Amino acid sequence: MVATFSSTGRDTFVGSPQSRVDGPAKVTGLAKYAGEFAAPDLAHGYVVSSTIAKGSITAVDTAAAEAVPGVIKVFTHENRPRTAWLNYNYQDAVAPPGAPFRALYDDKIHYSGQPVALVVAEDFETARHAAALVKLDYEAEEPLTDTEAARDLAYVPPKKRNGIKPPPEPWGDPEGAYDRAPVKLSQDYRLAIEHHNPMEPHASTVVFEGDGKYTVYDKIQGVSNSQGYLASVFGLNKDDLRVMNPYLGGGFGSGLRPQYQLFLAMLAARELERSVRVALTRDQMWSFTYRPDALQTIALGADRDGALRSLRHDAIGGTSHFEDYQEVVVNWSGVLYKCENVALTYKIAKLDTFTPGDMRAPGAVTGVFAIETAMDELAYATGVDPIELRLRNFTDHDQTAQDKPFGSKALKSCFSEGAERFGWSRRDPEPRSMREGRELVGWGMATGVWESMMMQSGAHAILSADGKLEVGNSTGDIGTGTYTILTQIAADTLGLAMEDVTTKLGDTRLPEAPVAGGSWTAASSGTAVMKACRDVAEQAFRLARQMENSPLANVDLDRVVFTGGRIEVAGDPGRGVSLVEAMRAGGVDRLEATAQGAPDKDFNDAYEAYTHSAIFAEVKVDEELGQVRLTRVVSAVAAGKILNPKTARSQILGGVVMGIGSALEEESMLDHRLGRFMNHNLGEYHVPVNADIYDIDVIFVDEEDKANPLGVKGLGEIGIVGTAAAIANAVYHATGKRIRHLPITVDKILA
């Protein structure tokens, strides 16, 4: 039974700005991360990486490394202990179709930086020194790492990735309508490869507990995924395998899948029967997941007033030779704009690289940049204001999903409120018409969109006799504020102070929850926590009614409120009892419940759910030097109910900053002769720093949504989607130079 009572009275926390409950632990150093947990007899592993991108190992010499005092063992493909045989054993919960990478599996080299040996020693410094003494000889082959060069080899993936919507079948007559359209444009768009680079590098500490039992601390966005992976690969019982990750120093999607350091740490710990830690270097953070390159072509046919007649969006993304990585790239064009003649196609091409991975708003960052830049080009071609053009092609139905209506869509309010805050009405539409001194001033805008999703999730709630509440599940807080919003929800549901609530996350001994990704955590885990707390509240209410001379004896549940640690009759605070009193009278020292939150099938059958935004950007470009300064951003977001405006704003700020990086700075540079990323450090891989960031204004527009009981939509992704397009459109307005290949750098502006 799900209670339908009013859960809070005079004081509420949901909807109010609250500081992060985990903040003090993080800023004082009390928070421990995967590579910081101690264990008796802890050994340290250091990974040796391949120096070629394709070929095979012809000889391995570990003698010098093994002779170093303190070295315990050097693992290579020649002495690797036996693990599971079949490919499916290595497929984690979010793996794409294919044969997942297996570290030290054989002599084959699939990509540059591939782990080819693991040196385990008594301390980290010894392991690092000995790793430099491992000698390997290779027979190298010529790698193919350029998506453009592999264009003719691209194919439609035969097996679709779970949870990734393939493009719908074309509708109408896209080619004919394009040919007949008075206004036509067709252009190619491309983003550079980007690497995740969270502050915390990937690390795994495997603590050997004896008798085949292990406690594992892993850099992962969902400990259940690591647990399932390790159990499957190493033939372990899940009951003997506890995986924990209470804190995560950023992920952006790099921690969705178990990475190879986890496999190597467990391999060594099991073989040596002692605890082992493997931490990757910053350099090695370029040796696995990344946002893939994508070749995109958009063709728009329109009437002279800007109304779309034809829309075609084609994309080719890169993947590895061993897995068919897929993401939603082209569908966004069909979601955003009304058009009767549409064709959307998506292919992938195999490259000699590691498998790409989901990186904040995967697919949407790529595809929305292309369509929103193309729409800006159409605005200039038709002489229609960019906002007005979008309104003329506005849709309240998702044409990619059998034309189902959106459950809510306050995008028009995003346009109007964002434009007013930004001052869009003062914009002179003519390129190069606005300037300040030697700088050209440009104003651009774009639309953002991301799926509003909810996954099945469990959570528990335990109310103790002293009135303290514990809630939690196995999901992770990747910096989004999950600890805080779950604490707020729990406190409101049982009418407690936030200080009386403890939230626990990132432990496989807690109820299972999905990985923290996709912007679904608030809806999924939040709903589960609310339901568990409501169950506890009902138990407490029954005890209160049974008390001798209870003021609630003849009161129904829907007539009470939970507030100030008490159960009171709504509107009559004098009639009530405290939670502690009810439990004491009932002779119980704890009330507990475990609940499940799940998507609303009826809602999903009838509606589609998306988060929307409108982004406005101002750039100032030095006319002679071509240097770009992004001086203002306004991001207006429609995301249903905002649980915590403070942490929500932080999420949008972070997304916008990543969008700035995508637009102006981030680029993993491949030397295609070597098949190697050459700028594999934070000195040469540029990301936005404080000096790059000026004013970012975040607006949350009012929106009511019924996709989940909390009425929330995800915020982790929407801040980045469309931001790069708004900046690129502003650069065009400033300079008259249309740059369709990100990042926008000085050489492209001056070319």
UniProtKB/TrEMBL annotation:
Pfam families reported for this sequence: Ald_Xan_dh_C (PF01315), MoCoBD_1 (PF02738), MoCoBD_2 (PF20256)
Gene3D superfamilies: Aldehyde oxidase/xanthine dehydrogenase, a/b hammerhead, Aldehyde oxidase/xanthine dehydrogenase, molybdopterin binding domain
Domain Aldehyde oxidase/xanthine dehydrogenase a/b hammerhead: 28-142
Alphabetical list of InterPro entries matching this protein: Ald_Oxase/Xan_DH_a/b (IPR000674), Ald_Oxase/Xan_DH_a/b_sf (IPR036856), Ald_Oxase/xanthine_DH-like (IPR016208), AldOxase/xan_DH_MoCoBD1 (IPR008274), AldOxase/xan_DH_MoCoBD2 (IPR046867), AldOxase/xan_DH_Mopterin-bd_sf (IPR037165)
MF annotations from Gene Ontology: iron ion binding; oxidoreductase activity
Superkingdom per UniProt: Bacteria
Protein name as it appears in the record: Xanthine dehydrogenase family protein molybdopterin-binding subunit
